[in-house]
Hints:
The chain is an alpha/beta fold. It has helices at 12-17, 32-39, 51-54, 66-78, 98-112, 126-134, 150-153, 163-179, 191-200, 221-224, 242-259; strands at residues 24-28, 44-47, 84-88, 116-120, 139-144, 183-187, 205-208, 216-219.
Amino acid sequence: MSIHTEVKRISVPQLMAYKGEQKIASLTAYSAPFARLLDEHLDMILIGDSTAMVGYDMPSTLAITLEQMAAHAAAVVRSTRRACIIVDMPFGSYQESPSQAFQSAARMLALSGVAGVKMEGGAALAPTTEFLVERGIPVLAHVGLMPQYVNSMGGFKAQGMTDESAERIYNDALAHEKAGAFGLVLEGVAEGLARRITEDVSIPTIGIGASPDCDGQILVTEDILGLTGGRIPKFARQFADVGALISQAVGQYAEEVRSGTFPALENCFGVKKQAGQG
Ligand code: KIV
């Protein structure tokens, strides 16, 4: 008799029910090996378009395509069983109109199997959030520092530092809540503003460079593992130096290849065992 233990994935409504009950722990993943390791520990995994910069060394997130994001997302879905998987909609795939956004998001869901999509935008994007949610696509809205707006923001700068900008971001957050977003990513916003939004909305807020009082936190996995070439952003913390481990292991491999100690005969096929060998 085989014992089959089914692990149920955390759903979007379950994530929403965490508000006020337990914090949402979330990170990014772009590939199967990372997603497999992250899955048992996290409530939500995001295939962030930050992969454009982290994984492809692009100067911004603007040039990654829907097909590229869908391929990364499908790999993450296939290699996980527990965490709720959300993907970033890439720049240009949703800003034109609610119907363009629906077509793109529906294609993304079909290609990857994710549970929902994240879109960056202020109150002007709220009708698009509503359009998708009404048609069965859960939306995580991303406000504050929006990397897809790097050109209009004049760089990756913290937001909500003046009363005027804080009020605008507050209204952006409330507009997406009203439109039916299941959660809000608050990126690079003043701490007090993130706290105020978290207190005033009924949906979970997930902070990155925001406030410890957000309902959850998200970071780019490479930032916490020492895989970004020694550059740790102010809002992150390095929990391990995996970069140093990789460098040490690869150095040893190269040395053994050059000295002829790798491969050994035990790594080869068709080698006859000598008498006395086990
Ligand atoms: O693209 C990304 O990784 C994000 C974050 C919120 C981490 O949007």
